[in-house]
Amino acid sequence: MTSMRLTGYADKFSVHPGDPIKFYVNCNGPAEYKVEIVHLINGDTNPRGPGYLDKPVAADVNKTYKGRKQIIHGGSYGYVPDAKAFHVESFTLQCWIWPTAPKTHPRYWKHGAQGLVTKWSKDCGYGLFVNEDGCLELRINEHRITTGVPLRDHAWHFCAATFDAATGDVVLYHEPQVVYALDPVIEPVRQILKLAISHAPVPVGIACYVESLAPDDALAASSKPAGVVFAGKYNGKIDSPRICKVALSRQDIETMKLGAQPGLTERRNSGPSGRLSEVIVAAWNFGKGIDTIVASDEGPYRFDAQLVNCPNRAMTGYNWGGTNFDWKHAPHEYGAISFHDDDVDDARWSADFEWSVPETGVKSRFYAAKLTTSEGDEEFIPFWVVPRVGQETAKIAVMVPTISYMAYANEHVACNAGGAELFVYRVPIMQQQNMYLAEHREYGGSIYDTHTDGTGISISSRLRPILSIRPKYDHFLAQAPWQYPADLHLICWLETMGYDYDVFTDEDITYDGLARIENYNVIITGSHPEHNSGPQLDALHNYTQRGGRLMYMGADAWYWVHSYHPAYESTGRGVVTEMRRCESGIRTWRADPGEYYHQGTGELGGMWRFRGRYLHSVAGTGMSSEGFDVSSYFSRTPDSLDPRVAWAFDGIGYDEKLGNFGLVGGGAAGLELDIVDTMLGSPPHTLAVATSAGRHTEAYLLVMEDFGFNQQGLDGTTHPRVRADIAFHETPNGGGCFAFSSIAFCGSLPWNNCDNNISKLVKNVLDRFAADGPLPAPPADAIKHRGRADYDPTPPEHRSRKARGEFLSG
Ligand SMILES: [Fe+2]
Q1: Please, which of 16, 216, 413, 735 could form a disulfide with 731 given CB 3.0 to 4.6 Å?
Q2: What's the gap in Å between 557 CA and the centre of ligand 1?
Q3: 130 near 152, Cβ under 8 Å?
Q4: Would you kindly state where each structural domain of the chain is located, as residue ranges?
Q5: pLDDT of residue 1
Q6: What is the rounded distance in angstroms from the CA atom of residue 56 to the CA atom of residue 684?
Q7: Ligand 1 centroid vs 11 CA: distance in angstroms?
Q8: Per CATH, domain 77-339 is 2.60.120.200
Q9: Centre of ligand 1 from the C-alpha of residue 475, in Å
């Protein structure tokens, strides 16, 4: 296995016929690489299935390209271009900080000083830093003055420094907000430095400093601004940074905490007045424009800082009182920005090739630019050709869960989670992608990971190589394809069965709404559409209510609130998604109190369930449990004999084991499982037509949002809710939903060259759902009043097969 010397991304996930798509490649080593556009059919290398399959696509970009190295300048920061007003003789610097990794290990990937507010580079200028020992440090030219006092991590500290050029007086203040009984007193550090500040023509840095100006360095072209290389990326929060052009007294520094004074009158006062208002160079208010990537300066020069790599905003400030939880209602308590040294919003590479997709002749399908070298390197850059709205070419459409792909993008859990083995009941087997990402934190993590400082990652960009959205990639959770390559099982089945279909992505439906989907007879989901935007769920609801048909092919869907960050829409739609892991749900990290609202759209994050949009209401079933050892199979229930749905089982015996085979865990019922629950939104007329009840191991556990306290008996050997239910319900106007309720389900479709009972069931449903016109009306006696909790105290799937009066074979 070679190391990953080729990595790349495209500027789009979905591209319309006739439109261009650009590709960006880091070719680190090989002199050249070959490009072929391929139509992807199967991405699973498991020898028990059809194996990796693609079809070449004739394209004018199919040729050999010269390789070049490109790098990602990861880590978030703010900068303001150099300006004369920053070339001060004397100064006061001040800010609040909440450092998360003030002292790092010498082997830490970015060990060294961290910049707070700096106008400093190569021993010229001035700035406040956290030094490599984790202490506050003032730099003036080559001089470094420190308190020598370690900054407590995850705590607010007020920091300030003054320099008076006339007297040479330097004072450095470090004042923790909370002082414990046994904390030593921290006195201000005073020194005399008789010098003049040498000013370098470098930007002001927030949460960084300028390492060098390198306009001619090709690798610096992907920094922002291009050619300026920043270092000292800070981990933690900064609130209310200010720069003044005189050395203020401690008393005046206190007043300066108020900010700036734009336009004082006797009726209007917002900050320091009189002589203090005249010495302000910059006074940033991070509580303003939280939904943007600009840090607003309220000082006289309007030195707004550009924020790079999307640091977290809507973060509680030093003054958060614990009464306001929505930043929109109290922006002044959300004046903190949380920076991380591994944030990334855009790799900003130079494009290597661009393909104009022909207007005709290229079907709406899964594609990739396949990159290879003569030395065995291989990389795939996936994309989807999606018809323009109104130019659909099929009755069937596959909704590609790209938001979920982005949530899992470059996921590090296998490497970083200490309990991974317990979780999956086996030793996680790493892939080269896992190893590469562990060594290249600048490629950014997934929304399942934590930043290098331990805080949760809530932002994901698609403008970077996403090595998990690749064919031939097995995920440690399943030791099989997961998400993108798992969804190719469905594509392989559609292709093998000869269906014609279109594809569109979560992005397309979010931005286009109902118009994107209303002309299809049936929409098929991926295997794990867990992360969704509100507009997407609205569109699906409107679609099924108007007679549309939905085939939900997986499990644990409609779970987390995601939004696309509006500040990135100028770069393309759907570039950056955001998600916050709030009070409940399966969480690999937990948002801090007061930080549940998205910085981009301002909406409440967390689970859709806790915004009143029950998972079970979207397609009929919702998440109940998960486990990652082995998958099981389904059995039909008496509901499957109901004439409303019996057609789905044409050609399938009542006692057949449904899906006791498959490429994901060995069965159709596995990994994450959904059930019918009318109290959680399943329509009261939902039919649970098959179930895997009683067939899961102790590795399967009930989801935590479904129980209020811990107790024995929450696992698959005991708890009745640990199961998957295949379910059907009709929607108004001749529509309907079929939910297959297991992430492993699609892994059974290609089994035995698609000749199996899961394939037959799905074919029966798809053929019925894809047919023109409404579904046949249900029998008259099916129209009746139904309760919700009380309509059947012991639903059939909870009873033993004997109690159901079922014929027991064998
Ligand atoms: Fe998931």
Answers
A1: 735
A2: 8
A3: no
A4: 6-70+347-394, 77-339, 403-798
A5: 44
A6: 48
A7: 25
A8: yes
A9: 12
